[in-house]
Amino acid sequence: MDASNLSIREINSLFTKKELKPSELYSKVFENAANSEAALHAHLTLFEEENIKKAAESDKRFSNGESASLLDGIPIAIKDNINIKNYKTTCSSKMLSNYTSPYDATVIEKLKEQNTLFTGKTNLDEFAMGSSTENSAFGLTKNPWNTDYVPGGSSGGSAASVGARSSIAALGSDTGGSIRQPASFCGLVGFKPTYGTVSRFGLVAFASSLDQIGPITKTVDDSRIIFSSISGEDSRDATSVINNQLNIPSDNTATIGVIKELMEDGISDEAKNEVNKVVEILKSKGYKVKEISIPIIKLSISIYYLIAPAECSANLARFDGVRYGLRVDGNTSYEMMENTRAEGFGAEVKRRILLGTYALSAGYYDEYYGKALQARKEMIDEFAKTFKDVDYLISPTTPTQAFKSGEKTSNPLEMYMSDLCTIPANLAGLPAISIPTGLSKDELPLGVQIMSKPLSDNSLLDFSEIIENEVQFDGQPKGWL
Ligand code: GLN
Predict the structure, then answer these.
(1) Would you say the pTM of this structure is higher than 0.85?
(2) Which residues contact 228 (CB under 8 A, 6 or more apart)?
(3) I need a surface site. Which of 129, 304, 365, 452 has the fewest CB within 10 A?
């Protein structure tokens, strides 16, 4: 038995029964990292040395029967846009290549309280802008199922790490799909909680009204354990909400809606087949399934690519050569800022800042940004109406399987299209999860996405676990252990 393949609850039970020590598991995940990092480049930094002492402390707690936490001694990888005190937070950008965090993000504080072990910081698209982890200033990450393909993005390093078992689980951030899309490309579970349930304090902001931290894991239960540990109201995040969960039935008294607009052109037959397969299973178990139309979903990408760049242009204004990270000198302070931003940011980040500044400029504000806000409001209302009729919505997570490295880099619009199914949940603040369900004919993972109404995260996880148990996806890429 290889412990790095087990779920968090299984590992914890071995720790408790003293059949496995945290330090043994810790060595095993670093052995997996040694076998896979050269080929995959999931991590920007690995913390092996620093945590050996902490692993030994976990050993001691379990041997004395003193551990009270399911996450005690569990090695977790952290996306490198989440601050861990005294470690670098680079956001995979030259701009922050020498930046060390002076504080912990709230999610990190919470995981430290649980005695989680951090394995390292994972690669991402620069400032979380991208869908393939090809926009990192520090090199590509590859898909553990087949290294010719991208792992997805922007949390591609986190997904590749869990896929190759160089961590047991990982944290990512999801602004338009960056947890769910890479999880789906790598055969994993990716969960974006309801907006506001997990504090964004200490997450480097990309588009603040959309950003959300969440887990990438092997199983739904692992996501549940991490979500329950990192969620909760936080006075340091003004958009944080009280996590009062709604109870929705997850058994076969629930009604499921298949989103018509996400089963049409632009979605591959393979992706549709996965949804149909799950629908058949649900019907056979007595669930009521019906087709639902939410026409405004077709506008998701247009709405997102006005709102996200607008917010990013404001958030990234702070990287000016004065306050953080890189400074490139110039003859005047204006020239210094210009040189710093020209050298510090990569092409995709510059494209987004330009788009956002344009959309917010006087004369265009109402025409572009204002209209996008109106459409977003309409989408929120449409979802609220839909959830009067159905309890859960099902769709593919991504229009296709993972694509090849380099395949979409010269065509940003095509790259943007890969988030068609995931963006609506961010625009409406809904909880959404991707569950792996099968393999394509190229032997690459495919997944389905389930969404539900705000603050029904726990019910969504329960329902997803039922699907997971029925589908029995064998989620292990070969060759890294
Ligand atoms: N791929 C989307 C983008 O490029 C979403 C990114 C994200 O969720 N961080 O903006």
Answers:
(1) yes
(2) none
(3) 365
